[in-house]
Amino acid sequence: MKVDVLLGLQWGDEGKGKIVDVLTPHYDVITRFQGGPNAGHTLEFNHIKHVLHTIPSGIFRDDKINVIGNGVVIDPCIFKKEIDSLLKLGFDLKKTLFISKKAHLILPTHRLLDAASEAAKGDAKIGSTLKGIGPAYRDKIGRDGLRVGDILLNFEEKYRIRVKQHTDLLSNYYHFDYAAALADYEKAWFEGIETIRQFQLIESETFINNQIKAGKSVIAEGAQGTMLDIDFGSYPFVTSSNTITAGACTGLGIAPNKIGKVYGIFKAYCTRVGSGPFPTELNDATGQKLRDVGHEYGSTTGRPRRCGWLDLVALKYAIMINGVTELIMMKADVLDDFDAISVCTKYKIGGVLTKDFPYELDDSVEPIFESIPGWKKPLTGVTSESDFPEELNNYISYLESQLGVPISIVSVGPDRSQTIVR
Ligand code: GDP
Ligand code: IMO
Ligand code: MG
Hints:
Layout: E1 3-8, H1 16-23, E2 29-32, E3 41-45, E4 48-52, E5 65-68, E6 73-74, H2 76-88, E7 97-100, E8 104-105, H3 108-121, H4 133-141, H5 155-173, H6 179-197, E9 200-202, H7 204-213, E10 218-221, H8 245-252, E11 259-267, E12 270-272, H9 285-293, E13 306-308, E14 310-311, H10 312-322, E15 326-330, E16 340-349, E17 352-354, E18 365-373, H11 390-403, E19 407-411, E20 419-421
Parallel strand pairs: 1-10, 1-11, 2-5, 2-10, 5-7, 6-8, 7-9, 11-15, 14-16, 15-19
Antiparallel strand pairs: 3-4, 12-13, 16-17, 16-18, 19-20
Bound molecules: guanosine-5'-diphosphate, 6-O-phosphoryl inosine monophosphate and magnesium ion.
């Protein structure tokens, strides 16, 4: 058996949570491989709407195993809140959720360092979700991190050493007043550590490889999106992990030759939350219409998402980096009421037209658009491909011919049921 990967091809919030939940019946094991509670993955079914941050989106299907892999960073306090709110819905995850001992912990001081670093950057800030992601991964790479496995032995002692390093940095470098916030957060954080202790803490790389050997099917759920990847995204306005297919190998401990299908998921238009370049952004009434119709407000922070047209130059680049084998187009219904839909097919940089993704998406990048007729019919009630308006079929064919990869699923609403498999 192979591991299939599902990941975002844009700047996150493509609808990964919804589709992992839809695909879960086809899989035995659902895994997260990177990121942390900066993610907000929304699922809707049977009148329940739920946002997951750290926990894989397979959790609402009873007989499935869910694994938080070594590449993930966990904030125990947020994890506990997630577990408690799922318990209220009647989902007790103690038997179905496994956590890698090698996953790193986000410390209370990582959150404070995130806030201090963003404040120090002023106008150049990343627009981080302020969940402590950057500082936690910085400590991981700097070999100063604390891992889930550390909670099993002399944890308090190891914790205090790290916190001392962080508070020195906060006071001496950032001149950041941390004392009250730290005291506030620490109590809830240690309660979260006790919650983590109640779960099955495992060598998840061995566990997952054994599952594969035993013929079980595995899906890896990406967080963020390719344009936020630490190596290939719009650096430095990115997150601090590898959000791409290769990240599933390092974030789960599976070999590259174990990767099977790669589902690349994208919105029929484009959004971004936080700072950084966005060539097709619309700062006008059309952008506002996309935001209103698509309810484009962050699932984690509630911030309004920046909206714009689909960018095929960036999308093709993302398909290349990830080795996408199937595309999934989300939120087609948001375009129901547009006479014409624009798509960026080229960039003009310094007077020269190009389809190549440049080193930087700076202000010199001008998007060049083609216009496609809209369908002007509601899609939310459509239940099969045969009901698609002709203009939607044309839009799909146009994108497939431009991108060279089939679009196998079209999503026409937030609910599990509003998913058309082609
Ligand atoms: P993720 O981070 O990739 O899992 O995506 P988010 O959950 O942050 O954002 C996607 C948003 O779009 C959520 O509010 C979903 O409920 C919603 N959504 C997903 N698919 C569709 C769709 O096809 N149509 C509409 N209108 N909303 C959708
Ligand atoms: P999901 O998994 C959208 C963005 C932040 C910021 C940048 C760095 O729901 O798609 P960080 O908190 O990682 O330091 O923020 O990345 N960002 C996301 N944008 N969806 C996400 O996750 C994101 N996770 C981080 O807004 O611009
Ligand atoms: Mg999200």
